[in-house]
What does this fold into?
Amino acid sequence: MRLLLVEDDNHVAAALSAVLARHGFDVTHARSGEEALQALVPEGAGFGVVLLDLGLPDQDGYEVCGKIRKRTSTPVIMVTARSDVRSRIHGLNLGADDYVVKPYDTGELLARIHAVSRRTAHEDPAAEAEAALHLGPVRIELPTRQVSVDGSVVQLTRKEFDLLALLAQRPGVVFRREQIISEVWRTSWEGTGRTLEVHVASLRAKLRMPALIETVRGVGYRLVAPSS
It folds into this structure.
């Protein structure tokens, strides 16, 4: 996912960009409100989420949020030290999709980013039209969470389906273990690595396609789309 980080503090931006990159995000850094608005032309410029700090040098962050919402429906998460309820309500009324107060937990921030992006995808008619993924003989029905191979339904657990759906939405792309754990299990990598390996092995066995999910040694996993 492409993410626009609007943050005037270069040290904060560098540290957060590094964390986001480790979780699979393609981060573009804007240092001012005007730079952010230019980055979103035309019509969101393909960004999945805007992470907007409110303390900007050229414009008030609330004003920037309002301008962003007039230009694009790209989800906006406000990041600020202002924790009072009135400030949160004001931001949400301007069109922000979520509001994170500093200092924040990185895991919570990642979960909020994924949550707003999922909500937006669900509301997007184009996304609904692509609700079924076809990978050779494998069909993945996202709304009904049903998977079939050559027309025969395969019973998967909730996490097995979530893992398969994540990999299947970007065939050939390597997902880092940390990113998979964050998106599927909503937790950090520590202590969950073995669980991921077990679920990958179970998917390979249930689908009877050992080569479908490829292990990229030292990095993570990717889905290899089979031929029809």
User: Anything to note?
Assistant: The first strand starts at residue 2 and ends at 6. The radius of gyration is 19 Å. The longest helix spans residues 106-123.
